[in-house]
Design brief:
flat; mainly alpha; 153 residues; single chain
C-alpha cells in the first residue's frame, strides 16, 4: 500500500489546469477583478453611508477607502519587486517597507481621528475592503471552477 503525500507531483500532468481551461485564474485577470471589487465595495459603502449615516462616517469610509486602495497598490508593487528581484533572499529593506506602510496608515488614521472630521470605525472598516474583495474573488473562482468541471462531464 503506497500512500501519497501532499508534496508529491501528480502522476498525470494533463489533469492540471492549463491557460486555456483556467483563463479566469490568470494573474492579470485576478488583479483586475480584485481592483474592480475593491473600488466597487468602497463606492457602494460610501453611497449607502451617504444615505443612511452621518457625514463623519461617510468621510471616514472615503478616507479609509482611499487608504485601502493606496495600501493595496503599494503592497502589490512591493511584492512584485520582491518576486522579480529575489532569487533566494528578499531584497534589503523589504521587511522595513511592510512595517513603514502600516506606520503611515496608522499615522493617517490617528491624524484623521484627531481632527474630529472622520469616524475611526468607518476608516478601519474601509481598510477591510481588500479582504472582502479577495473573498468575492475566491467565491468567483470557486464558482467558475465548479461550473467548468460540470461542463466537461
Amino acid at each position: 500500500m503506497a500512500q501519497t503525500g501532499d508534496r508529491e507531483t501528480p502522476s498525470d500532468v494533463s489533469d492540471l489546469p492549463t491557460a486555456e481551461t483556467g483563463r479566469f485564474t490568470e494573474p492579470s485577470q485576478v488583479e483586475r477583478r480584485l481592483w474592480r471589487n475593491i473600488v466597487s465595495i468602497i463606492a457602494i459603502a460610501a453611497i449607502a453611508s451617504a444615505v443612511f449615516a452621518d457625514r463623519r462616517f461617510t468621510l471616514g469610509l472615503l478616507l479609509g477607502g482611499a487608504m485601502a486602495l493606496f495600501n493595496f497598490k503599494w503592497l502589490h508593487a512591493s511584492l512584485r519587486s520582491i518576486f522579480e528581484e529575489a532569487e533566494r533572499m528578499a531584497p534589503p529593506g523589504t521587511s522595513m517597507k511592510f512595517i513603514l506602510r502600516w506606520v503611515i496608515i496608522g499615522l493617517v488614521v490617528y491624524a484623521a481621528n484627531w481632527t474630529g472630521y472622520f469616524n475611526p470605525v468607518a476608516i478601519l472598516a474601509a481598510l477591510f475592503a481588500p479582504a472582502f474583495a479577495a473573498m468575492i474573488e475566491a467565491g468567483y473562482v470557486t464558482y467558475k471552477t465548479i461550473s467548468e468541471d460540470r461542463g466537461e462531464r
